[in-house]
Amino acid sequence: MMQIPFDQRPWRLGVGIVLLNAQGEAFVGRRTDTAGPAWQFPQGGIDEGEDPLQAALREMKEEVGTDKAEFLAETRDWIAYDLPPDLADRVWKGRFRGQKQKWFAFRFRGADSDIALDTHVREFDAWRWMPLAEVPATIVPFKRALYDQVVAELLPVAERVAREA
Fold first, then answer.
1. What is the pTM of this model?
2. pLDDT tens by residue, 60-92
3. In whole angstroms, how far apart are CA 37 and each of 6, 34, 44, 54?
4. Strand pairing category for 11-20 and 98-108
């Protein structure tokens, strides 16, 4: 089967999750499939029949192991990123150039002990809370611009959560 040229491929529709603790810090997980430390927010695809918020709640349960969260906000627009072309040829059977995502902020209402990284296919081998503004510096370079946009839009939400603590 011949692959579609990279620049003609669509983006895979997905969601991203900014889970905030009471101090306004964000949950980040360390990816299991990347050489070297690669931290990121939980994210994933939208299944057929799901709306983006439903997908975000499902992904949070699968990747973080909890649903103890309160919806706070979502990004105004969808935000896209391209994979490096060689990686795009290997993931998702080469059908997509990257992802176009809707991002959601949630306030975590549980305890750290409610987080379980092994409830589904394990994507993270460690996790931590991190100041939201510092997250883009820890991200793989091809996703950095996306994370800069997400953080710029959702940082006021994190600051509000911290003020309300």
1. 0.93
2. 999 999 999 999 999 999 999 999 998 898 888
3. 27, 7, 20, 29
4. parallel
Q: Which two tokens stand for residue 109?
A: 């209402």
Q: Which residues pair with residue 68 across a beta bridge?
A: none
Q: Where are the beta strands (DSSP E) in the chain?
A: 11-20, 25-31, 39-40, 43-45, 69-74, 79-82, 98-108, 124-131
Query: In DSSP terms, which residues pair with 70 in a beta bridge?
Result: 107
Closest to 78 measured CA to CA, from 157, 14, 142: 14
CA distance 159 to 105: 12
H-helix segments, 65-118: 85-88
